[in-house]
Amino acid sequence: MPEFISPAAPSAPNGTEDRPAKQSLLDQMGGPTGLVYTALPITAFVIVNALFGLGAAIGTAIGVAAAVSVLRLVRKEPVQPAISGLFGVAFAAFIAWKTGSAKDFFLTGIWINIALCVLFLASVLVRRPLAGLIWGALNGTGTAWLKDKPSRRYYDIATLAFATVFASRFTVWQWLYEEDRTGWLAFARIAMGYPPLVLAILVVLWAGRRSAKRLKAQAAQQPAG
Fold it and tell me: pTM for the complete prediction?
């Protein structure tokens, strides 16, 4: 999850807010190379664990994550993904070290995804779909769409798309975890990382554009009324 949430951006004139919002989403995902950066510590952990054991794998994963963070800083890429990625790998490595099990390196990701799934589903039930709230914060449009039922329905669909991504991750990763298939768990962690998340974001873009058209049309009708 949750990687794409960021503070609200300054509001932009009507019709121009989509571009900076899209850029913010890409920034939160770490840019085009984000998938590679995310995969490197995980891949290193699995390979070194198979060859030299858990202790070496933990040290290698943290070392690779730190190197990636330094590389991002040197290349003046977004700092937030670099720092969050390093802390995420370090915490996962700590859990694996405490339990003495390599598969527990992936345990925090499993927990996080089931928590996000529940959170996104709950937001739909209370009529505050998180996809819409996040989108409104990113492009500075706020929550005016909450008063428009069709707009809220669009964001319900987008929020359910994210919930589906989180639920599918949890289901697959948890099954592989219980089967002690650490190698396949690493593969699934990478394969089910950004690709399905991008699809969910496309649904948010669709919802945002449909909602923006409705709100713009309503605003245009107000003076005539």
Answer: 0.78
